[in-house]
Amino acid sequence: MLLQVEQLSLSLKKDGSYLKILDDVSFSIDKGETLGIVGESGCGKSMTALSIMRLLPDKARLSGKVSLGESEITTLSKKQLEKIRGNKISMIFQDPLTSLNPLHTVGKQISESLMLHTDLSKTERKQRVVDLLKEVGLPRAEELVNEYPHQLSGGMRQRVMIAIAMACNPQLLICDEPTTALDVTVQAQILELMNNLKRTNDMGIIMITHDLGVVAEVCDRVVVMYAGKVVEQGTVEELFAEPKHPYTKGLLQSVPKIGQRKQSLGSIPGTVPSPKNMPSGCRFADRCKEAMDHCKSSQPNTYTVGSNHTVACWLFEAKEMNKVGIT
Q1: What pLDDT is stored for residue 324 in this prediction?
Q2: ABC transporter domain: which residues (predicted)?
Q3: How far apart are CA 73 and CA 53, in angstroms?
Q4: What pLDDT, on a 0 to 100 scale, did the predictor assign at position 318?
Q5: Low-confidence spans in the chain with pLDDT less than 70
Q6: Cα separation, 129 vs 136, whole angstroms
Q7: Dist CA 185 CA 207 (whole Å)
Q8: Residue 40 has what DSSP assignment?
């Protein structure tokens, strides 16, 4: 097991009180595996990634357990975390233009983690930077090391971000919406590049996205999050073929399918609840067409519905009691 996340909960302070952002989030990832985390904006996808990286405000309350191999990240000091971030775990953020420093050259920004985590000489670092730029498919690598982010296109900047993340050959790469601002052609190139890097380095990838097409293309397993909780997880094949949670079904019905003609795409009425006004029962109950009275008063248990498939929904307690729908 490369990464194990167990009952991860996060509360952030706002206006003098703590708001629960994540609630008992659990999942795992192996080497050479890509795990997708999907859900609408405000469901806790990015906060899960930042919690794993421990990139949180000082007053944040984090509980649960995050283990990278034999190391438990949640108990590490700041100095110990500095040795892991950018070395064993790297993260690619949503917007490369704001993530890259406009005052420093591309080469300098890539070499920073090499200076921190390796014993390479200045000459060796420069060669490693050039090799990384070539590895991520950028032309004119020898010239690009001296250029600034504003001189590059969006796709080139994203490739630079990947080069920074891959500089020290991390065991785990976390990608937070890495292709959001890119056109379809460049998006496909970036996803293919990341797949190739995963195979070459035998690393694990966490792919955070709202794009189910990206999940279908590159992920092995998927975690569906809603309002800070995991509502369903399983293999991509099983979850796409037999989605169990009403929220997952709603997400899949909103995606257009080639060869299928419809007057309109499916949609999920309402919005994700605010942490200030979180329902006491199932957090999706107010938007769910199949909600029962029980759903609005109690949070659902998690049920196993396949070999590697779980769902948190009261409908499956009813089905179990009637011995229907569960194998």
Answers
A1: 41
A2: 3-252
A3: 8
A4: 58
A5: 181, 256-265, 318-327
A6: 11
A7: 19
A8: -
